[in-house]
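task queued by scheduler; priority normal; single chain, no ligands, no partner chains; default sampling; output format set to structure tokens
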Amino acid sequence: MKKIITFLIFTFCFSETKIGWVDSQYIFNQLDETREAQVELEKKQRSLEAELMKMISRGDSLYQAFEKQAPLMGAEMQKNKQTELVEMQKQIELFQMQKLGPEGELYSFYAQLIAPIEKKILDSIAKIGNERGYDYILDSSRGGIVHALDSHKLDEFVLEDLRKGSISE
């Protein structure tokens, strides 16, 4: 009997809840703004890669010149040129990290381009959810809820309960 009552309560509670879902990655890929952002990103990436290739070419030229001239150089001159080559290698590595690395300029540029598009998508999802009366909208790409009615939000109840100290540790 308890199982039947639980089932009926569960069914009644969720029968009035309207749930929808979206694939935000699909939506993102369909927008013209996304394609424009991708073009801008590719331009930036090509520019940075060209700059990196110039640095690498300059480093290779320095190394080849050193290899040819090393036998004619004194020990002090060789040491200075080797230090110069090591410094050039460090500059190349630093450039790669600062410009093309996971937290570099290219990544930041991408985030700046994409953030307004993602916000626009989320705002549109919220608008559609409110207009069409959805209690929740799930996102299959993100694996979570992207819209929920505030009437289902329990934050304040949980905070009130915690402030009362009713949950013992």
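post-processing summary
- The first strand starts at residue 19 and ends at 22.
- The chain has one domain: 2-164.
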